[in-house]
Structure of Permease:
Amino acid sequence: MNILIGTLLIGGVAVWLYLGLPNSEWRRAAWLSTWEMVRFTAPRMVVALLGAGFFAELLPREHVEVLFGADARVTGALLAAGMGPLTPGGAFVSFAIGAAALKAGAAPVAVLSYVSSWSLFSLTKILAYESPLLGKRAVLLRVAVSWPVPLAIAALGGLLSA
């Protein structure tokens, strides 16, 4: 299934769910909420996609392919998993970097490892929110339990894409 078919299917399900709302008040609230989310997200998506395109052009393709390409295998996934937590910013930054890396020759397995390690172990999130609110012990316990997850996701992605 390509991205167009998937997008059309998701859009069709969204319309079906929208039309299934019980009354016009709920449909109006859903429409306003959707519009608010689009207004919030669209400018960020434009900037992120433009940034990813420019960033991909700046990345030296030969280095990306050596470090994160298909031949890098476990080493590329480990390096990508190590870089994920060091990425500052939110999802628009990390996903844009992942898209740029793919365009510059990184293997999907390395990008899976990078994005999932960023999602689980982002230092900006851990230092600003998690550690002060939950305490160091809880953070260390969570990290200790979940550290293999990015590599497991990368391995599963490699199996599914083979």
Notes: The chain has a mean pLDDT of 91. Residues 9 and 15 are 10 Å apart (CA to CA).
